[in-house]
Amino acid sequence: MKNINRAHRPDDADARRATPPVICYPTDSLPEADSRILHSARKTLEKTDEVLVPPREARCFEVPAGQFFRIISVEGPQVGDLNLWQADHLEEKFYSGKTRALHGTHLSTGDRLWSSFPFMRPLATITHDTLDWYGWDDDGGSVHDVIGTRCDPYTAKLLADIDYHHCCHSNLIRALAAHRQMDYATAETLVHDVLNVFMCTGFTHDTHQYFMKASPVRPGDFLEFFAETDLLGGLSACPGGDCSAEHSSDVAVCHPLLVEIFKSNDAALADYRPIPPSRYGRQHRDPS
């Protein structure tokens, strides 16, 4: 929590605090996904594959460019931690911090999941969200956040002195290692901050601490994405269940999550143009 020392308050404190906020990254010139084409393509979706993610575990899945995938609640309220990589170059991975800076703390239809430097392009675009009715509640909470990093064994060890291996960080490491036949040490360097699918979170009004509360997700709800490039995804069914009480433990009731992959035969997709990798030349010149 941020320390506030009233003894250091200057005479012009109110004036300093009253300066207006400025949006760091205005998005008026940000290229948008062609919603007309994506809306048309969604009308002819045909399921090609599915992957069931067991409770307190993770699984990987592959989505070719130009196809769609959904993360679906199938048995009960459950949140999921999502990693995305460019399937042929895993060093290009989802950059939650820059996505947050561009689109805000919580994502929904039309928002895009941007990749890490030096690529800086959309990996996926959210095309449908059955929880888009939730908005912001009285606690300041909303769903699908890019705030939290993922539950992990290091923080569990620090705060509770336990070794807990079903946390999302370890789940994703095991899933990636198994899917791509690599050792855990290599996989851990590739696992990254997540999109917290279905998770309801925010910052408390008084201390501005990160909080979670019971997810509003119910069986049948889903979050849908369009793959802007060939994708490898990793999804962990968080050990916190609906995150109404705690995570990183075996106490919460947990449920599986289903990933479904779809292709579309809509001819309109032939006119869809994804954003290429960043055109910055990586000179990093000294401006002097």
Could you characterize the architecture of this molecule?
Helix content is 17%, strand content 28%. The protein has 288 residues and is an alpha+beta fold. The protein has one domain. A hairpin with a 2-residue loop joins strand 4 and strand 5.
List the helices and strands and how they pair.
Elements (H helix, E strand, L loop, with lengths): L12 H5 L17 H7 L3 E9 L4 E6 L4 E6 L6 E7 L2 E5 L2 H8 L8 E3 L7 E8 L12 E4 L7 H8 L7 H13 L3 H7 L4 E9 L6 E4 L8 E6 L3 E7 L19 E8 L24
Antiparallel strand pairs: 1-13, 2-12, 3-11, 3-13, 4-5, 4-9, 4-12, 6-7, 7-11, 8-9, 9-10
Keyphrases for this structure?
288 residues; alpha+beta; seven-stranded antiparallel sheet; six-stranded antiparallel sheet; 13 strands
Number of helices: 6
Main beta sheet: 7 strands, antiparallel
Q: Could you estimate the helical fraction of the residues in percent?
A: 10-25%
Distance between the termini: 39 Å
Helix-strand sequence: HHEEEEEHEEEHHHEEEEE
- The radius of gyration computed from the alpha-carbon positions, rounded to a whole number of angstroms, is 20 Å
Which consecutive residue ranges, at least 5 long each, have pLDDT under 50? none
User: In one word, what is the shape?
Assistant: globular
Number of domains: 1
Mean pLDDT: 95
Residue share in β-strands? 25-35%
Secondary-structure content class: alpha+beta
Beta-strand segment tally: 13
